[in-house]
Records
---
Amino acid sequence: MSDLQRFDGWLQTDTTAALVIREPLVPVEGPDGVFFPATFAASEDKKTFPGGFNIDPPQGDKNVCLVDSVGSQSNRVEPLFQSGGYAELVPQIVIEAGDRSVNLLEAGHRAGDAVVRSTGLQKQLQSAFLELLRGDASPLAKIAPTSLVFGVWDSRDTQAKLPRIFSSTIRAFDVQRLTRSAQYTPALDYVGLGLLEDTAEKKTKDAYSERGFVHVPSSGTPGGVIARGGIRRDGTLSLAALRQLCGDDDKATLSLRRYVLGLALVAFTAPTATYLRQGCNLVPDPDNPRTTTTVYSNGTRESLALAHQEAFAYAKVAAREFGVGASHTVQFDANLAKSDIDGKSDVKQTRKRAARQSS
């Protein structure tokens, strides 16, 4: 069996459902270290979610805290395909806008993002999404293959939608919330020294406070959490979802699936980012090494040994067979963006925009 055929059983039969990684993590300070999960804006009904850490249930000891969401994890992994040998696996689509440039791999909505819809690639991408709706994912794989790996929704135009083949989330269990307080002390007593006018006017006092000229206390703000039940990253490569991808014939379908599997395996096995944000530096737990499991469609599980370099080697072979699409550097077109906003472009109107224009 050639290297290219190594995983064909996953791609051509329904016997395997997914590959799963479970990776225990600990704060760099130690298992009982304080760390800061992601924070989120409040929902419209603040009684439903007041904002801050996403902890379910909000009260009680037995809870689950979202440390890094599936979207955030995808955004940390996807830029891997910009660097080194990984960059040769996918087209490099760069959008130049004034003195800035953005790689499509950094765009939040991938092939469905407004930044690429406002370039000369708009019609080509629209055509690829329409082909996807007809059942052929190969044209999109030639332009934005990571959109097939990490998921995409062309919500502003064709409505074509693909689920994530690879997903990863970090959660903490049985977390204890902490609060913190702080006191800002200015370098000088500006009012006491007569350097600033003493005033009872609230507007002026607020301005002094905002600009750092007076003492500013801060009490009871979120102070992070301690995970008494541990922290874990769960990663899933859904082979069942990958087998939904098709080309225009059986040969093209197998080539496409091999290519996307190679990219997904690179993402799946890649070393994870340890620094997530200020106060949240998480590393693998040396006492509890991560496990990788093949999950079969009948529910049975089997340990899987697959090194990152093996995945990368397979991805390179699969990419050569499929034929990586051409790289492009394109210009952001403000006129295309304006036409899109005004509803005059060659894209489908969203319901919100249609309602706004009819009002």
Note: The radius of gyration is 25 Å.
---
Amino acid sequence: METEAGSTPDFKTLVSRFRTRGDLISVQPHGSGHINDTFKVTVDSVNPPVHYLLQRMNHRIFKDPPAVMDNIVRVTHHIRNKLSDSGCADVTRHVLWVVMTRDGLGCHCDPQGNWWRMYRFVEGARTYDKVEHVGQAFEAARAFARFQFMVADLPAPRLHETIPHFHDTPMRVRALMEAVRRDSFNRAGEVKAEIEFVERRAALCGRLLERHARGEIPERITHNDTKINNVMLDEKTGEGVCVVDLDTVMPGLALYDFGDLIRSATASAPEDEPDCGKIRMRIDVFEALVRGYLSEAGFLNTAEREELVFSARLITLMIGMRFLTDYLQGDTYFKITRPRHNFDRCRGQFKLVQSMEDQTDAMERLVADSLTE
């Protein structure tokens, strides 16, 4: 069982660095994530045995693992305390539970310089890589809104900004235009239509940040990777029980989370579908997401509610710009499996933006209806 780092870990020693009880029984690779190496650990503590998730954090992407874990520990402890105070029957299923090291830290650095962390395993729940029915969309959106609500009153200090300018859309526009100017791989000529697509919308890219600067849209604590596979759904009831993958939890705008949820869950085809004719924004899924999100998002102010539909278009456009920028720069950031892969991704995102623009009136009506329920 080699990790991405290319070596076989000493799991017995690693597990012993964390506050687990009992003898190690087994370690098995777990999940399909591409960022961190994840293992399901079984410990012979009681009957039945106890399960944990052990992860090697990818410190090439998250360059300050202790800061990442400081954010996660603070957020999860805060939610755990609120759940306990509310009388939640099984807190360990409704929030990630960080298993601290025996030194009282959130992560451990091994002699090879790899950073490891451990969570309690969430039993009786699973994730889905795509929306199979609208009930899943409703539950996932409700879970993300509940997460935002639970951390809205997290005490100071401010969380670490582990990826600076992550959703700075005007900066993404500037980066794209610089890549066009340089045209290091002579690709700008073949993407003129896509460049013009961005140019026609560039003036709107700073809209949310401008409203934030005027004090109309507040900074909040946000998840920043609100794909449906980052919510665990109960295997029996389908309820959204636990938000996972908290590496990008940091200060941001609530609208970024909502927008990315709409972007990632409503598309009718995979993100890299080369045939753009297959791509549209599914209005039935959008309706379920809106209803689920707003059922728990009473904390939103008027300005945030006004920008819900726009945020979906903005975040989708931004992701498309990032794909296009990477294509022009020689595919150095996003992993590709074929020529023009990032170009296909870009075109797919822009087609989704266009579909949202075509359905804006219907989307706005659904938001208005949900706000009056």
Note: Strands lie at 23-29, 37-44, 50-57, 108-109, 115-120, 125-126, 220-222, 231-234, 240-243, 250-252.
---
Amino acid sequence: MRWWPASLRGRLSLSAALLAGLLLVAGTLLVSADVTRTIGATIDHELRDRLDVVKAGVSAGALDVVVADTFAQVTTADGAVVKSSFGEGKPAVLTAGEQQRALDSRVVVVNRAAAGVGPRTRLLAEPIVVGGRTEVVVVGATTEPLERARQRARLTLAVLMPIVVLALGLGAWVLVGAVLRPVTRLTDEAARLSMDDPSRRLPEPTGDHEVAVLGRHLNTLLDRVQAAMATDRAFVDDASHELRTPISVLRGEVELAQLALADARSDPSHLDVSRLDAVGESLAAARDETERLSRLADDLLVLARMDQGQVRLRKEAVHPRQLAEAVVARLGPGRTRVDVVGDDVLVNADAARIEQVLTNLVANARRHAFSKVLIAVEDLGSDGASVTVADDGKGFPVDLLPVAFERFRRANPARTGRAPGREGGTGLGLAIVSAIVASHRGDISASNGPPLGGAAVRVRLP
């Protein structure tokens, strides 16, 4: 049987009730112990005072002081009763063992029956020398007040504990319900959220308490989710658009090649070489579009893996200047001159990924430069190092600068002198560069102007 409630409200209420019960038990035990100690100390003090009075009387030979005491007895060393306050002929109240301990030193006997006092008695005994003889003086008092105090404590615990526990449990139930009411509203509203309406938000409680802060943070999270959904939808739309163009071109070129081949088969005797040339051109165009599709698929795969955190960086000591020189050598000579200048500095980075960054930036700069590209490496000291790739071309269009590193962002073909669909890029190069730099906890920026007057992309690596 499950006794622990499933709801948070029930758990908190039951916990409060159990804690109250434990505190009540502990408090009652502490009070009872303190009362017991106080009453016991009072009884002991009274016994010591009476014992001193009786000893003084016995030493002076005034045995009447024994009779006048509430409970007193004088015995010889061997336990014979000399005088008793509760009648002659009564046996000694001390046992043989207690008598022997009393001869050695003072002895206290607690909670045992003693004739003349009652079933619960505290006895105090001490030796005394009278006329050269050693005798034992005993005084006693009932411990009934002490026992009554204990009984009252137990009764209080038995009566009050269920009442207090129940009252605190109900109070906690009401209080927790009031505290959790805004959370319940948040939960009910969260259950009604739907992907069909990502703009819907949770009700935010007023105030600065924890539940209000939770509501605001959840709505902030929903804002980010909505923005991410919008970005994903835009990404899918852009990817679909980018894929549609090369696929359409590829299909058209293949259809042209098929028509030319069909004509050649229909009349082989009148085979026209120009038709074969047209087939070759169509196949070459199809090959180019296939390569473009392959590059686009690779770029999309890299971005998807980075978004999911599946690209692991293998960091090591990397020399950016030497890496830039290797990239320039690998890309080979072109119509533009590429110079590598700057400081010899090491950074902790993934060499393959930084090479990919430099390759994308240099290839992009060479494509837009008039005659010159510059790669400048700068040692930033404790801030790491920066690599700037600049060209002497027209620079970034003004409207492209704020979004240069977003996916599928490219300059207007009319401003580049290229036909639509033949821009040569997928619009993902700078986005991949930005993602790689961000994974290294670096930053990237784009500008126009110095050092060559055209576009300049600056990458800082920590």
Note: The chain has a mean pLDDT of 77.
